Amino acid sequence: MNTWAFSGNIGKDAVVRKTTNSTVCSFNVAVSSGFGDNKKTTWATCNLWGKRAEGKLPEYLKQGQQVMITGELTLEKRDHEGKIYTDLKVDVSTIDFGKPPQNQQVINNTVGAETSVVPLSSPNEDIPF
Question: Domains, the chain, ranges and CATH?
């Protein structure tokens, strides 16, 4: 299994839908890299499956929410109007929440057997000076 860990902000509120065999919660995360003129954004489509998609977790996956994701990465190619695009898709194994957008509350509990949800600390809180 390949595992990818990344952080970013959710682009749109999560969407929960039923498939023939399960339930899936999908959301996109904007991952920024570089700085200045070299700054770019990569979008990752994240999926939570089964009971985690049916629980309360999707209620907290709102636009602007800062998240740290770990999961299995797959690349899918698609053709759109003659152009070939590569989509990053991640089956989420863990998700951590950072600062909530506006007045949204941060949850701090365990969701599902393998997903822990805890607030991320500010990078400045870990610096001893």
Answer: 3-124 (2.40.50.140)
Look at the block and give the residue holding tokens 């039923």.
Answer: 18
* Cα 31 to Cα 42: distance, rounded to the nearest angstrom: 5
Structural contact between residues 57 and 25, judged by C-beta atoms closer than 8 angstroms: yes
Q: How many residues does the chain have?
A: 129
Ordered alpha helix ranges (H), 1-129: 51-54
Query: What percent of the chain is modeled with pLDDT above 70?
Result: 76
Secondary structure class of 109 (helix, strand, coil): strand
Q: Where are the beta strands (DSSP E) in the chain?
A: 3-10, 15-18, 23-33, 40-49, 66-80, 83-97, 109-111, 115-117
Q: What is the DSSP string of 12-27?
A: S--EEEE-SS-EEEEE
Per the prediction, the chain carries an average pLDDT of 81
Alpha carbon distance 74, 15 (integer Å): 20
The pLDDT of residue 80 is 86
Q: How many CB atoms lie within 10 A of CB 14?
A: 21
Q: Is the pTM of this model over 0.90?
A: no
